[in-house]
# Entry
Amino acid sequence: MEKRKELIVSAIENGTVIDHIPADKVFEVVRILGLEKSDNPIYFGMNLESKKYGTKGLIKITNRYFEADDINKIALAAPIATLIEIKDFEVVKKQTVQIPDEVEHIVKCFNPNCITNKENEVPTKFKVLKDAEGKIRLRCHYCEKFTTKDNMEFL
Amino acid sequence: MSISLKNRSLISITDYSPDEICHVLDIAEDFERNPHQNLLNGRVIASLFFEPSTRTRLSFETAIQLLGGNVIGFSSTAGTSVQKGESLRDTITMVASYADLIVMRNPIDGSARFASEVSKVPIINAGDGSNQHPTQCMLDLYSIRKTQGTLENLEITLVGDLKYGRTVHSLVEAMSNFNAKFNLVSPVELKLPRAVKQHIKDAHLEYEQFTELEDVIPHSDIIYMTRVQRERFPDPLEYEKVKNSYVLRNAMLANAKPNCRVLHPLPRVTEIHVDVDANPAAYYFQQAQNGVYARQAIISAILGLK
# Structure
């Protein structure tokens, strides 16, 4: 069992593994990172066994590394995801994603009357806030309305 | 103390610090004493009203005339390039090349912030959809300070539609800087949104929620009335049940404090009975008049003329 786990994490020679994605958020993460437009070989798994969380999703992107700002965006969809960088089949860096202070172009504003939903050229921009219970809320830079985790729609 | 608001767009009341707000109120006081000041001296101010508004537009245009400026613009989009599908960016870019300052009302939330990002001249938000209406807030603050002598430590009672009323939200945000106590009087369906209450909590201030207006009148310094609109209720029967609870009548003010004043952003429909008009506490018409001074102050401060 231990050996199999090792295989899942390090089976690519060079690239990035994003682990501990909630099982139903894998495609959102693919979209957030624009991976559907990537030419690199990409593997992903859903409903994999996780001792900590029950089930999880996982994405392996070969020959690609991400800047922290970019990868932190996925924290909105997958707040406990782990980012593993691999070189020559070895794990060279492992980090947990961090929720950014601001996000642009990723999430749609929940307010249908917001300028970002009315004029095509205006990209969305939010301040990321946490309420008293630690739940993430996005405050729109333009219309100042809140988009909550429950009604977050990724672009 | 040197406060300059030159070239600072006013999109949301929170764009200005409490000191900067007080600076604008000081300038407005000066305009109330002496409204005719030819500071603009022929400068051009654009007044772009993408949706009709009687009071705000007339108040702005009066302020500009009193300052000796010229107004260009439109009072609705009928017959303009906007109707032909011109983007907001293009309209603003074009107008910014004609005018020194743009006053804009637009039905889309967030349009004012966007306009301020694409315009080379400052923008004054005269209302962007359900979002912000900072010049209304400024005149409310002016009216409060003028009638109470201070903005500090006041008990503010907000009545009616606290859920959708943008003037209420801005006023709560602004007054949270001045150690206010808030009484929130509304039907359950129209309670102040959680996000706005959070402002009060963040400022470590007190608020109480009520469903009956009469209970809070005796200890209020300001009673800020708003209209409870029938269309806000999914069930018309619910509206019928509550509509009279939020109507202020003269007899209800019998135990009000001597300094108590009744404010309303207007237009009033039935929520303040006409028998209140003769009561010395009625202040809503003077409040509307104060809008001209407040807007003169904002325009001249942003253009660096005061």
Q: What stands out?
A: Chain B is about 35% helix and 15% strand.
